[in-house]
Design goal:
Blueprint lengths: L2 E3 L2 E3 L2 E4 L3 E4 L4 E3 L2 E3 L2 E5 L3 E4 L4 E3 L2 E3 L9 E4 L5 E3 L2 E3 L2 E2 L8 E4 L4 E3 L2 E3 L2 E2 L6 E4 L4 E3 L2 E3 L2 E5 L3 E4 L5 E3 L2 E3 L2 E4 L3 E4 L4 E3 L2 E3 L2 E5 L3 E4 L5 E3 L2 E3 L2 E2 L6 E4 L5 E3 L2 E3 L2 E2 L7 E4 L5 E3 L2 E3 L2 E2 L6 E4 L3 E5 L2 E3 L9 E4 L3 E5 L2 E2 L6 E2 L5 E4 L10 E4 L2 E5 L26 E2 L17 E2 L5 E2 L5 E4 L4 E4 L2 E2 L6 E4 L8 E2 L5 E4 L7 E11 L6 E11 L3 E3 L5 E3 L4 E2 L11 E7 L3 E9 L4 E10 L2 E7 L12 E9 L2 E9 L2
Protein name: Carbohydrate-binding/sugar hydrolysis domain-containing protein
GO molecular function: calcium ion binding
Keywords: Repeat
């Protein structure tokens, strides 16, 4: 595998791929600074055509192209784009995707910071065209799409998975946050907040037969000059809008503070909280116009404000149906002109939902069991046939909801793990390196460890978090390695950290017999686990064959046991000490020392035995 690592590449100019051009190849591109590039067509910095590179830990900034000023993926490319900073790139013409442009491709885009990228076209941060990328765990902020999709644009039958991202402070003509045109993405568990738009909807836009699944998101504080502060459904779009908090959005000069539906749309709204939204025109919570049909179930519409239709405004042969909902003002909160219809099904109420603030927001439900003084009327008031979402709750104490289901949005009960940052490390070629990743989970969930970009030859135990690597004599360089700790909660959450491992080059010298030797000495690794309860593994490496002695001593310096005393080949070796002395007796808890002796080299490590 080709590796491009640790370079500053700047001011390149080409038709495509001003910095790096990848065609039918899979290099590793990591830890570089890529800036000031310009292309006449696409891929200002990195251009991928039928390629699957790993693009990891780079800073990609200040680049310009017709499309994909930061990264362009096309012709079936499936790169891994992980942990990069992609900032201040621009497509000053009409081309899409200033930060990342996906055309007929399926990249994996995880854990990047995508900020201040701008385009005159679609998708300031990311644009997907006939593509199905995975977009997960990114921060997309302060990006600008003059046409549509300041944060993300999905067009031309794209089906990306957009989960667990923070999408804030972006702006566009349509959709400051996420723009879906003739596409059906999965949009789940994101924070879409404080975005702006001028012509239509600042949060999420569904246009022209778009049918996304929008679930578990916080859609809050977005501001649109015209139409749909939180969500806009337009022209035969039929999204499923499930278990979202659509709150405190603003339609500054028009209608639909929370949601606007226009022209024959038929969205399904289930278990949403639509509250505190404002429209200067009509429909503070929901606005429906031109033949739209909405079904709203298990939802709360409360505290929204508008000139007409405080909660809902209907027009031009539109219809809405409420089942098991809490709607402020009841039928008086819904404006129904001639030619429109309102269906009131079973289980609807008009009572203050008694919102209370909790660890993740201000729209939990008051519950005696969680420590409040009274129960919200929305508790246990949803459709009895509805399934209870796993790992979600309306309670401030974090206990998950149980049957019967509560109305409204359910906050996740799971809290993510915390992965301890692993210090940067420098080792020599053929030197053994090991360390143990450490992570905690506030909910005491089990944790699994992974890395998408381990160096060649390295291993990571998914359960114990033990990382091991002995770089070969051809692996000198800087390696930026991404570690991920994922819990087993619902939904599963993860924490990501990166560490730099610098491998120094080793100069070859000749021994007395004319054979090549390396100038660095042997190495004794820290035992693992440490502390340990019954047994522990001791690893060491040798530059050349020779006699080796590995001994265990107690804190007084007395010999406990020799675990190795023999001639050993060059390379990495491991031995297990089972916590017994020379006579096979179990030794007690305490501090012990492991000492490696090989020729004129000796090294000692401290070990702790806890029984």
């Amino acid at each position: 595998m080709s590796v491009l690592r640790g370079f500053t590449i700047q001011n390149g100019s080409e038709d495509q791929g001003g910095g790096i051009f990848c065609s039918q190849s899979s290099p590793r591109i990591e830890g570089n600074i890529l800036t000031g590039h310009e292309t006449a067509f696409g891929g200002g910095t990195i251009y991928c055509s039928g390629a699957s590179p790993t693009i990891d830990g780079n800073t990609i900034s200040g680049n310009t192209a017709d499309d994909g000023a930061g990264i362009k993926c096309t012709s079936g490319s499936s790169p891994m784009i992980i942990g990069n900073t992609i900032t201040a790139n621009s497509t000053p013409w009409t081309g899409p995707g200033a930060g990342i442009y996906c055309l007929d491709s399926s990249p994996t885009i995880i854990g990047n910071t995508i900020t201040a990228d701008s385009t005159v076209g679609l998708g300031g941060g990311i644009c997907c065209e006939n593509s199905s990328p995975t977009i997960e765990g990114n921060t997309i902020s302060d990006c600008y799409g003059s046409d549509s999709g300041g944060g993300i644009a999905c067009i031309d039958n794209s089906s990306p998975t957009i989960v667990n991202n923070t999408i804030t402070g972006n702006a566009g003509d349509y959709a400051g946050g996420i723009y879906c045109l003739e596409s059906s993405p999965i949009i789940a568990d994101n924070r879409v907040a404080e975005n702006e738009a001028w012509s239509g909807c600042a949060g999420i836009v569904c246009m022209n037969y778009a049918s996304p699944t929008v679930s578990g998101n916080t859609i809050a504080g977005n501001q649109s000059d015209y139409g749909g502060g939180g969500i806009l459904c337009n022209y035969y779009s039929s999204p499923m809008i499930l278990d979202n908090a659509i709150t405190e959005n603003l339609s500054l000069h028009a209608n639909g503070g929370g949601i606007e539906c226009y022209s024959h749309c038929a969205p399904l709204l289930l278990s949403n909280t639509i509250a505190g939204n404002v429209a200067s025109g009509d429909g503070g919570g929901i606005y429906c116009d031109v033949g739209c049909t909405l079904t709203v179930t298990n939802s709360i519409l409360w505290g929204d404000a508008a000139t007409t239709g405080q909660e809902v405004w209907l027009s031009n042969a539109s219809a809405i149906s409420f089942n098991y909902c809490d709607v402020e003002g009841g039928t008086l909160g819904v404006y129904v002109p001639p030619g429109c219809s309102l269906h009131i099904g079973p289980g609807n109420i008009d009572d203050d939902p008694l919102f209370v603030s909790g660890s993740l927001g201000d729209y939990y439900l008051s519950q005696i069991a969680a420590g409040q003084g009274e129960d919200s009327p929305c508790v246990d008031a949803a459709n009895p046939a509805s399934l209870v979402p796993v790992g979600r709750t309306t309670r401030t104490d974090g206990y998950p909801d149980v049957w019967p289901l509560d109305m409204g949005y359910h906050y996740p009960t799971n809290r993510g793990p915390d992965l301890v940052d692993q210090a940067d490390t420098t080792i020599a070629e053929n030197e053994y390196l090991t360390f143990i990743l450490e992570a905690t989970d506030p909910d005491e969930d089990s944790i699994t460890f992974s890395s998408p970009d381990l160096p060649s030859g390295a291993t990571l135990d998914a359960v114990t978090g033990v990382f091991e690597w002995t770089p070969t004599y051809q692996q000198a360089g800087l390696y930026t390695v991404t570690f991920i700790a994922t819990d087993f909660g619902t939904p599963a959450l993860a924490d990501t950290e990166q560490t730099d491992i610098t491998v120094t080059d080793v100069v070859e010298v000749e021994d007395g017999e004319g054979e090549g030797l390396r100038s660095h000495a042997q190495y004794l690794a820290q035992n693992y686990p440490n502390p340990f309860g019954s047994s522990t593994t001791i690893a060491y490496s040798l530059r050349a064959p020779g006699r080796v002695r590995v001994s265990i001593y107690d804190i007084r310096g007395a010999l406990v046991r020799e675990v190795v005393k023999e001639r050993v080949a060059a390379g990495v070796h491991r031995v297990v000490w089972d916590g017994r002395d020379t006579r096979g007796r179990t030794v007690g808890s305490g501090i012990y020392f492991c000492r490696l002796e090989a020729g004129d080299f000796a090294e000692t490590r401290r070990m702790v035995l806890l029984r």
